[in-house]
Amino acid sequence: MVEEKKEKEFVKAQEMQLNEVELKVNRQNDEQVDKIIFHMSHMDRKIDITWKPKISKDSFEGGFKVNKIIPMERGLLPKKLVEMATQCSEKGHCKVKVNYHVWNTEQDGSPVTYRFITSGKTFDEWEVLDKGTEQEKIE
Fold it and tell me: Is the pTM higher than 0.85?
């Protein structure tokens, strides 16, 4: 009997350490975010999770309602993402509980693993476990 290899799976509620949030912006328009890379650590392994955030824009052309899916702009990034990035830059990392897809495949004969999220809905389910510490004002 041949063992069947699972190529795609969904990881739910995995606790990880987020070390950095990297934005890859569009070459022609640096307000458009083409890709977000979450640089993570889990059990002494470095893991990158990618997300290509998109938004839906409606317009009317020639009497038709036209719906376009376009890259998200910097000003529309989720508040939680900005908080995570800020906490990582101030503290060096933050603990998060994440959901993501894993795809194991081959590229040029070598095994490759891709980790990614496909929608804002999946990102909305992410949870920051250690909130930033409140700083006292010294007067």
Answer: no
pLDDT at position 139 is 55
Distance CA 49, CA 28 (A): 24
Q: How far apart are CA 106 and CA 75, in angstroms?
A: 37
Pull the structure tokens for residue 73: 């702009």
Q: How far is CA 122 from the centre of its chain?
A: 9
User: 119 is written with which tokens?
Assistant: 């929608």
For the chain, the structural domain boundaries read: 8-128
Which residue type sits at 118? T
User: How far is the C-alpha of 131 from the C-alpha of 118, rounded, in Å?
Assistant: 25
Cβ within 8 Å of residue 47, ≥6 positions away = 16, 40, 41, 115
For residue 86, the Cα-to-chain-centroid distance in whole angstroms is 15
Strand partners, 15: 97
Comparing CA positions, the residue from 33, 128, 117 lying closest to residue 88 is: 128
